[in-house]
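User: Sequence for Hydrolase below. Tokens please.
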Amino acid sequence: MLMQREHATLLVVDVQEKLAPAVHDADGLMARLQWLVDAVRDTGVPVVFSEQYPKGLGHTVPALRDAAPTARTVEKQHFSCVAGDCLPDSLMQRDQVIVCGMETHVCVLQTVIDLLDEDKEVYVVSDAVSSRREADHLAGLARMRDAGAQLVTREMVLFELLHQAGTDEFKAASKRYLVGEQPA
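Assistant: Structure tokens for Hydrolase:
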């Protein structure tokens, strides 16, 4: 199963102002998330941001919000976006959910498992999720994979959503996202 733009939504889980500095490789994660949100937005795939208890953890990091100004933001208190019943119908009506964000072993994990239980094809962007501790991050990735989620990378997302080379869209994306220094 390949990601297809007409079937997919990008769900950015809880990349919030007060939590973001505490995760492993915070600066690298923010750069990779920015790359991913920009690239997905450029393909026309809808973006949804979730926020866990924003009163305490703050709102989505401004640079990400600015990258997708028309994206819907949903608030929750449950760790899982699905259990929190906050996801918009527009996301739930699509077959595929591409997931990134924080923390891999808590909100991302619980959301992914619940999305799988809702019969969604779930793609976890392994280089665009993180936790405060690397061991938790790795355990979360393993558990999601074992539950049936597909682990992908940012470039896999971009290439699958573009679907083919040689188009004007591919050429523009290639210049912007594949040439020169990119976030590691």
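Helices lie at 26-43, 54-57, 62-67, 89-92, 104-117, 134-147, 154-162, 168-178.
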